[in-house]
Amino acid sequence: MKTHLYSAAIVAGTSAASVLAAPTIVNGDFNGTPSIASAPAGWDIAMATPDVVNAFGPFNNTGIGWTASPNGGTFVRTNGVGNEQTEAISQVVTGFEAGGTYRFDFSVTNLGFRNAGNGAWSGFDGFYQFFADGTLIGTSQTVSKQASSSDAIVWEAASIEFVAVAESFTLEIRGETVGAAFEIAYLGIDGVSASLVPAPGAAVLLGLGGLTATRRRR
């Protein structure tokens, strides 16, 4: 009887562990060469003209370096415009399980924009949208533009949870403005990763498997 209990618990624990395998996003750190109208390696341009940038630009007219994202390197800059000119990147992601709950973690910021000619500080607050095969699955918090061009940008941790409807889908990440069409939010995003959110009881099953094994060894 004890042997049967031990085996059942270990099988349950093993099953829970296998479900916890996380999907992979190619180049979620957006590493690449700073360039205009481009996407990082492993990503495609989904809408308009996003840019790969670092702490100095392109399109940094503030006179001070942008603050690098928490994971450093390059990041993606997008204009949220409120129409078809909104900028976005995409890639086909795999390794999900239909019906499973997942979480995307990432960092976001508002870059603002200082006009190189007249020095005007412009831009609107904005946020990021995540789409799976064209269906909106979540949005980040709204990130506010700094009060002036001399204020350092601030990166914020963000995450969304969603239920996968397929093992593979096209993930699209799109910047958006809280303003009307053409009231642009100049945004930055970096460090996108994916993980499975354990179903209620999965951690308990894993714990029971280890506990039963310990009892059996005694």
Question: Mind explaining what this structure looks like?
Answer:
This protein has 218 residues and is α+β, with helices and mostly antiparallel strands. The chain is built from two helices and twelve strands. The strands form three sheets. A five-stranded antiparallel β-sheet has the order 1-4-11-8-9, with no helix packed on it. The protein has a five-stranded antiparallel β-sheet with strand order 2-3-12-5-10, with no helix packed on it. A two-stranded antiparallel ribbon has the order 6-7. A hairpin with a 2-residue loop joins strand 8 and strand 9. Helix 1 (2-19) packs antiparallel against helix 2 (202-217). The two termini are 15 Å apart.
Summed up, what is this model?
This protein is an alpha+beta fold. The chain is built from 2 helices and 12 strands.
- CA radius of gyration is 22 Å
Q: What is the count of helical runs? A: 2
Shape: elongated
Secondary-structure element pattern, one letter each: HEEEEEEEEEEEEH
User: What is the β-strand count?
Assistant: 12
Sheet with most strands: 5 strands, antiparallel
**Percentage of residues assigned to helices:** 10-25%
Structural class: alpha+beta
Distance between the termini: 15 Å
**Average pLDDT over all residues:** 86
Looking across the biggest beta sheet, what order are the strands in? Answer: 1-4-11-8-9
Portion of residues in beta strands equals 25-35%
Low-confidence stretches are: 1-18
